[in-house]
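Handoff note, outgoing to incoming analyst
You'll be picking up this chain. Sequence as last confirmed:
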Amino acid sequence: MADSSALNGEHEGETFADIVADNTTLNSADFFQCVFRNASFQYAQLTHCTFEQCVFDCCNLSLMQLHSTKIVGTKFMNSKLSGINWSSPSGVFSASFNGCVMDNCAFVSMNLSKYKFISCSFCDASFINTKLSHCVFEDCDLRNCAFHKTDLSYADLSSSCNYFMDAESNRFHKTKFSLPEAVSLLSNFDIILK
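Most recent structure output, in case you need it:
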């Protein structure tokens, strides 16, 4: 189990395995092309940090707080990312997510156009005033997600499940859905289905 003090300062091309930084406050640390494997950052507070072209593999970042932190070209794989407010990074945010648990996360007033989420769980997550145009949710669980004032134009949810979206408060244009999941959208209308 590695010491979290090794995370201070600037790092390039390093691998951090089995780091435990739970409840840690990390200030002004920069990571470029670094790999985090089996690392834990539960309840950690990251302020003025930068993660550029990094990889988080099999990590637990649940309830991590991001303050003025830049995430650029970073990959999250098979990681637990529950309860994170992704809306708070300093305007620079680009990442990919594969096999992640993102339950109870907040994506508020963010531009996630053309993002691809693969095999992720988004139970009780919030997408409010979010741009999801051309976004792909591939094999994702969207149970109890809140979609409000969200642009879902050209988004693809055809392989995902458990979603409901209000047709009046969200924008749909050529959005892809599939049966039987798309039946949930009929509850937007004052109809009786037999």
